[in-house]
Amino acid sequence: MKKAYIFPGQGAQFVGMGKELYHSSPEAKDLFEKANDILGFRITDVMFEGTDEDLRQTKVTQPAIFLHSVILAKTMDYEFKPDMVAGHSLGEFSALVATDALSFEDGLKLVYKRALAMQKACENNPSTMAAILGLPCETVEEICAGIDHIVVPANFNCPGQVVISGSTEGIEQACQQLKEAGAKHALKLNVGGAFHSPLMQPAQAELSKAIEETTILAPKYPIYQNVSTKGETCPMIIKTNLIAQLTAPVKWTQSVKNMVADGATEFIELGPGSVLQGLVKKIHTEVTVSGKQ
Length: 293
Fold this sequence. Notes:
Number of domains: 2
Structural class: alpha/beta
Oligomer: single chain
Order of helices and strands: EHHHHHEHHEHEEHEHEEHHEHE
Distance between the termini: 24 Å
CATH class of the largest domain: Alpha Beta
CATH topology of the largest domain: Malonyl-Coenzyme A Acyl Carrier Protein, domain 2
C-alpha cells in the first residue's frame, strides 16, 4: 500500500487557477508573492484574472502550473509524505521542489528559463503536436519514422493515446497516414510548438547550462522520470534526465506501470486539472486516484 503524488504538465492550466489557494492560506499567499518578485511580473494576475490566451503562452503556462502544484504541496493541511513521485514533463520540476531536491526559488527560475527557451524555439520553427487515439504505440512509431519531415512520438500518455510532435508538414502527413491506418482520432493540439522533439534542441542547449549550474539534492522520495521511467534518487542522473527530457518522449505509461510494480496503489494529483488522474486509471484500473487543486 504505497502512495504516489503526481504533478501535471502544460495543458492543465485554467483561468482562476490557484486563486482560492492564494486567499485561503497566508503561507500560500507569501509564496505566490515571492514568485511575482522572482519573475518580475505579477503572474498571479494572469493566473487569477487573465484570458485563456494569456495563460496559453508557454512563458506563462509553465511557471503558472509549477506554482499551483508546488504551493499546494508546500501548504497542504496534512503532511506531504509520499512513497514516490512523478511529474508529466514540466511536472518533474514541481515534483523535485515538492520533495526538497530543488529549492522553490531555483525551481521557479529553471522553469521560467525552460519556458522562455521553449517559446523561442517554437517561434523560430513553426511546429505543432497532435493527439493520436486508438492505435498501438508501435504503429504510431512506425508511421512517424517513415515520414521525411520531422515528426516523432512525444507523449506515451496511456494505452491507445500517443501525442506526436514535429514540423507542421510532418504532423499534417502523419495525421493523414495514421487515420488511414485506423486511428479513431488524429487531433491537432492548440500548443505553441513541437515539444519533446528534435525541434527543441536549441532550447535544450540553453537549458542544459542552467540545470548544470543549479544545486539539485537527492529527493526525499524516488522520482520516476519521463526519460528513464524508473525511480531516481541520484542528483547527477536526475539532471541528465531533465536535460534529455526536452527532446525525448514523455514515457508516462511506462512510468506509471513501474510505480505500480513498485507498490503504488494510490495516486494523488497535485495541481490544476485532473488529466493525470484519467490517464492513470486507463493505465491501471485497480489503483485509486484523487486530486487536490
